[in-house]
Specification:
alpha/beta; Methionyl-tRNA Fmet Formyltransferase, Chain A, domain 2; six-stranded antiparallel sheet; 321 residues; 23% helix; Rossmann fold; 23% strand
C-alpha cells in the first residue's frame, strides 16, 4: 500500500522506521513544525533520532504544515494519491475532509488500552491512575478524539518503577510491530474493528508544566506515582522553605511512599540526618524523596542533598512556591 505517515516525537519513530523499511511505499512523512523544543532549549522531553533525520535516512520527503486541516493542506495531501494515513502522536485532530484525502482513511497508534485514557498523555495518566497494565491500541480514525473502532490491541503490565518515559519507550516498540502487522492485514482486507464502549471512556489531557507542582495534601501513594508520571517532562517539583534561607525550587526525580507519619502536609516528618531519603508528610502517609535536583544543580541522591544543609523544626516543602 501507499502510505502517508503523520507523527511527532519518539513514540512514533520505531513504527515509522519499520513502515519505511517495509514492502509498503511511503509517499510522505508529515510532522509538526519545529517549535524549538529539545536539548537546545533545555527541555526534559525525550529526544530520539528526530522525524527529519528518520525521513532523510529513508529518502522520504517531509512536510511540516502549520495546520493539516486547511483546505490547501487537504488538497496537497490528496495529491499523494495514498491508500492510508498512519498516525502516531501527531498532535492535531484530523477533520473529515483530511481523512477523506486517502482511499482508506487513517489508522492511529495510541499508547493505551482504549477507551481508557483518550487524549494526548495516555502513558502518564495510566501511571498516575495506578493502572496495573496498559498497552497499544490501533484504531480506525474518526473526527472525534481517539474514538474510532479498535482494530488491534496488545497489553503489557506496568512495572512498579517505570516512569512515563521508560514505559513510552517500551510501548513504542510494541507499536512498531503492530503498525506493520495492521497495515499488512488492512492491505488484505482482513481487519474488522470493535467499537469502543463510551461508558468506559477516561481522559488523558495534555500535560503542563504546572502539573509537576506537588500537592502535599494528596496521598503519598498517589504522589509517588505522580512523580513517575511526570518523568521525563514536566518533572515533579516542589519549593523548599528553610528558616533563614530563601525558598529553593527542587525537582523530585525519584521517590517512594511510606505509611505512617502525622503532622501538617509538606513538613519534614523527622530529622533527616543520616537518612538516605527526605521524608515529607503528605495528606496520608509519607513521600520519601530519593533523588532530587535543586535549582541550578545536577540531580543527586537525597543523602548528598542533605549534606551541608542543616535542618530545623518548621522546614517544609510547599506547593506553588
Amino acid at each position: 500500500m501507499k502510505l502517508v505517515l503523520m507523527g511527532t516525537g519518539t513514540f512514533a519513530e520505531p513504527a515509522f522506521a519499520q513502515l519505511m523499511a517495509s514492502q509498503h511505499s511511503v509517499a510522505c512523512l508529515i510532522t509538526q513544525p519545529d517549535k524549538g523544543q529539545g536539548k537546545a532549549r533545555g527541555s526534559t522531553r525525550q529526544t530520539g533520532e528526530g522525524m527529519e533525520a528518520l525521513a532523510t535516512r529513508h529518502g522520504i520527503p517531509i512536510w511540516r504544515p502549520d495546520s493539516i486541516n486547511t483546505a490547501e493542506s487537504a488538497e496537497h495531501l490528496k495529491s499523494f494519491e495514498a491508500d492510508l494515513l498512519v498516525v502516531a502522536a501527531y498532535g492535531q485532530i484530523l477533520k473529515p475532509h483530511v481523512l477523506a484525502a486517502t482511499k482508506l482513511g487513517g489508522i492511529n497508534l495510541h499508547a493505551s488500552l482504549l477507551p481508557r485514557h483518550r487524549g494526548a498523555a495516555p502513558v502518564a495518566w495510566a501511571i498516575a491512575s495506578g493502572d496495573a497494565e496498559t498497552g497499544v491500541s490501533v484504531i480506525r480514525m474518526t473526527p472525534s478524539l481517539d474514538a474510532g473502532a479498535v482494530i488491534a490491541m496488545e497489553r503489557t503490565p506496568i512495572g512498579p518503577d517505570e516512569t512515563a518515559g521508560t514505559l513510552e519507550t517500551r510501548l513504542s516498540q510494541v507499536a512498531a510491530s503492530m503498525a506493520v502487522a495492521s497495515v499488512n492485514q488492512l492491505s488484505e482486507g482482513l481487519l474488522e474493528g470493535i467499537h469502543q464502549d463510551p461508558g468506559l471512556v477516561t481522559r488523558a489531557p495534555r500535560l503542563t508544566k504546572a502539573m509537576g507542582d506537588l500537592d502535599w495534601s494528596k496521598d503519598a501513594e498517589f504522589l509517588a506515582r505522580w512523580v513517575r508520571a511526570m518523568q521525563p517532562w514536566p518533572t515533579a517539583y516542589t519549593t523548599l522553605h528553610r528558616q533563614g534561607q530563601p525558598p529553593l525550587r527542587v525537582l523530585v526525580v525519584a521517590a517512594h511512599a511510606l505509611s505512617g507519619g502525622e503532622g501538617r502536609s509538606g513538613t519534614i516528618d523527622a530529622p533527616p540526618a543520616n537518612m538516605g531519603f527526605i521524608p515529607v508528610q503528605c495528606g496520608t502517609g509519607i513521600l520519601a524523596l530519593d533523588t532530587v535536583q535543586p535549582a541550578g544543580k545536577a540531580a543527586m541522591p537525597a543523602s548528598a542533598f542533605l549534606r551541608g544543609r542543616p535542618w530545623s523544626a518548621g522546614d517544609a516543602m510547599a506547593q506553588g512556591g
